[in-house]
Amino acid sequence: TVSYQDFLQTDAAINPGNSGGPLMNLRGEVVGLNTAIASSSGGNDGIGFSIPIKMVMAVAEQLVEKGVVVRAYLGVPMAIRFNAESARRLGLRRLQGARVSQVTPASPAAQAKVLVDDVILEFNGTPITDDNQLVNLVSLTSVGKTVPVIVYRRGQKLQIDITLTDRERFEGTDKQ
């Protein structure tokens, strides 16, 4: 599903029928799996998109080990209109992180006492630049893993440890 990963944008020619091929860097290393093209003519003259190899490998490993892909769940829908102005209103010097717009009841975030208007600055040691990055990081994390999350709340940075659960328990409620 498109909502679970970021894509690499490429100018590599992707035609109908050849998606699934490798996207390689200049050293011959596979960095992505060619997936789609946005083209006004339907040909290969548009912008190509590839799934990053880290996501490909995580999915492949789960399919081999379990036969299904299990995605972790945090339970924090993000604020769609989080911009520099709203970041300043919350007390941040610059736009960073992902602002929580609600907390799904009984979710890992609710159990860890994440609050609406918290800004997630770091997830498991990785600084968060936006909500898409957070979705990707959560999706790549093992179900049941406890991760440190740094949030900005009312002028302070706090570390909250959150144990992620299986998305299947909450499927359809939000995307994080």
Strand segment tally: 11
Q: Residue ranges: pLDDT <50 for 5 or more in a row?
A: none
Helix coverage percent: 10-25%
Mean pLDDT: 83
- Strand content bin: 25-35%
Distance N terminus to C terminus?
Answer: 13 Å
Classify the secondary structure makeup into a structural class. alpha+beta
Give the SSE string. EEEEHEHEHEEHEEE
How many alpha or pi helices? 4
Major sheet description = 5 strands, antiparallel
- Shape from CA axes? globular
- The whole-angstrom Rg is 18 Å
Give the SSE layout.
Layout: E1 8-10, E2 22-24, E3 30-38, E4 47-52, H1 53-66, E5 72-73, H2 84-89, E6 98-99, H3 108-111, E7 119-123, E8 126-127, H4 131-139, E9 146-153, E10 156-163, E11 165-166
Antiparallel strand pairs: 1-4, 2-3, 3-4, 5-11, 6-7, 7-8, 7-9, 9-10
